[in-house]
Specification:
This protein has helices at 30-36, 40-68, 82-89, 100-121, 124-128, 133-158, 191-209, 222-236, 239-252, 261-266, 288-293, 306-310, 367-380, 386-401, 415-429, 436-442, 473-478, and strands at residues 73-75, 276-279, 302-304, 323-327, 333-340, 348-349, 352-353, 363-366, 447-448, 459-460. With 495 residues, the protein is mainly α. It has two domains: 1-218 and 440-495, Serine Threonine Protein Phosphatase 5, Tetratricopeptide repeat (Alpha Horseshoe); 283-360, no CATH class. Strands 1-3 form a two-stranded antiparallel ribbon. Helix 2 packs antiparallel against helix 4. It starts with 29 loop residues before the first helix and ends in a 17-residue tail after the last helix.
Length: 495
């Protein structure tokens, strides 16, 4: 996937955490960049590049951290590389020059930089091509969405959760909203300020999209903005607003029918799924998360935790996504079970693994999440509609079990009981979509791994400093204004 970065136009001088920092000075001059954005084709090319950078970030970084750092996945240490085990064991060191803390920061800010390029260098096109105003604004909206999404993700990764301090005044990341000057250095802002930028960008993107209602989920539109805003508001603790936004999305999109559920993930080249709000097109590209989970690959390192698999009820169709069957010599599937793996995204063609086109098209946003957001928000907001929350939970569970909603029984005596059931359902429904670790963290819960976990660290009690990844030492050396997260003063030992 990294090869697709050739499509990306780099900035003249990106965030200048020094020229040796994660974003370096490009050899192109400003005039060359201005020339690139001299027409709409250049703007479209920049948008294409931004898309593939987003795909790279979600597939290579976000999904992996969100799952491996959580409690539902084991790492086969014999096959795993050092980067995987460091995330799994929370052995992330500021002085490590490679690995996820470094590459995730770098990849995230590459996206921000390219989004800022579009927003800055694309502005003259509005005057040059007034007849194409809607097309140009849609690219601006896309860039705003991308920037908002990445700053939101980076804040979740490198900062403690929003509620860590009463006013969210603790350190977030760098909410870069412009192209800095060559010698400009920037500082980390508060989590509150980072969220404010995210919300502002999404609201402006929503305004620019206007009535745009592109039905293809591989393209961002206003509905994706509302869906992401619903997630942001849930993370921020504005539950009434989160429920309101999730409801708007639910009214606009339907759930994928049960009969298409597995193929929604396994046959991305043919089936998008009616509930897809945004999924990133991986056309003819190798997906990292698919490879790390692929039981046919010797380097396959990730497996679902045994107790997690056992929690699925009989007949739950989602369990099929973690079952791999072998192929006979003629290429047809037979029923002999080979392995249980995190094989949600292994591409299949007509029931058989497609080894030539390993397309995964990872989901960024889908309607199932909106039901679960609304359910949790109604549980947790003052005066919330608990019956609506229970009905939303039943809706997700009914599809999974192949039952009518009226046939699904859930037992709860309080809002906290119902909230717990919703989180259990979310862990099943959105497994391997990069949510679990961040859900535990935002809810200020302890991370408790089962006894069978292969991790060297079984428990991470909130608010342990390791809930926030370290800022890489190279970034701090390049910019003395960057403050390291608490706890990362050197090589640490497990408690």
């Amino acid at each position: 996937m990294k090869n697709y970065k050739a499509f990306i136009l780099a900035a003249t001088c990106l965030i200048s955490f020094g020229c040796t920092s994660f974003l370096k000075v490009d050899t192109l001059g400003k005039s060359t960049i201005g020339g690139f954005f001299s027409d709409i084709d250049g703007l479209r090319s920049a948008g294409t590049g931004l898309h593939y950078l987003m795909l790279d970030f979600v597939d290579d970084e976000l999904f992996f951290i969100g799952e491996v750092a959580a409690d539902k996945t084991n790492v086969l240490r014999i096959n795993a590389d050092l980067e995987e085990t460091k995330i799994f064991d929370f052995d992330n060191l500021a002085e490590d020059t490679a690995g996820y803390p470094r590459t995730t920061w770098k990849s995230g800010y590459e996206i921000c930089t390219n989004a800022n390029n579009i927003l800055t260098y694309g502005k003259p096109l509005l005057e040059k091509y007034p007849e194409s105003k809607d097309i140009i604004n849609s690219h601006f909206a896309y860039a705003l969405f991308a920037r908002a999404y990445i700053i939101f993700c980076l804040t979740n990764i490198y900062a403690q959760c929003y509620g860590y301090t009463p006013d969210a005044s603790h350190l977030g990341v760098v909410p870069i909203d412009h192209i800095p000057g060559f010698d400009e250095t920037l500082k980390r802002s508060s989590v509150a300020d980072c969220y404010s930028m995210v919300i502002r960008d999404l609201e402006e993107a929503l305004r620019l999209f206007g009535s745009d209602s592109c039905p293809d989920p591989h393209y961002i539109n206003g509905l994706a903005c509302e869906a992401l805003l619903a997630r942001v508001m849930l993370y921020k603790g504005e539950f009434a607003r989160a429920s309101e936004l999730a409801s708007k999305v639910i009214e606009a999109k339907s759930l994928t029918p049960r009969e298409d559920y597995v193929n929604m993930f396994r046959k991305a080249q043919d089936v998008t799924g009616s509930e897809a709000i945004l999924r990133l097109n991986s056309y003819n590209m190798t997906c990292t998360i698919g490879n790390k989970c692929n039981p046919t690959w010797s380097t396959s390192a990730l497996i679902p935790e045994d107790s997690f698999l056992a929690s699925f009820e009989s007949g739950d169709i989602r369990r099929e996504l973690y079952t791999y069957y072998a192929e006979e010599a003629d290429g047809e599937q037979f029923t002999g079970l080979v392995a249980t793996r995190c094989c949600k995204y292994i591409p299949f063609k007509d029931g058989v693994e497609d080894k030539l086109n390993r397309r995964c098209d990872p989901f960024v946003l889908r309607v199932s999440e909106m039901y679960l957001i609304r359910a949790e928000a109604e549980c947790r907001r003052e005066g919330g509609n608990l019956q609506l929350a229970a009905d939303d939970l039943k809706t997700i569970r009914a599809r999974a079990l192949g039952k009518d909603k009226a046939e699904v029984a859930i037992k709860w005596d309080s809002s906290s009981d119902l909230d717990r059931l919703i989180q259990e359902e979310k862990a099943k429904e959105l497994y391997l979509e990069g949510h679990r670790f961040f859900d535990i963290k935002r809810r200020q819960e302890d991370l408790i791994r089962p006894a069978g976990s292969t991790s060297l660290l079984k428990t991470l009690k909130y608010p342990d400093y390791r809930f926030a990844l370290p800022i890489n030492q190279l970034e701090m050396e390049a910019n003395v204004n960057i403050i390291q997260n608490d706890g990362y003063t050197g090589r640490k030992t497990l408690d």
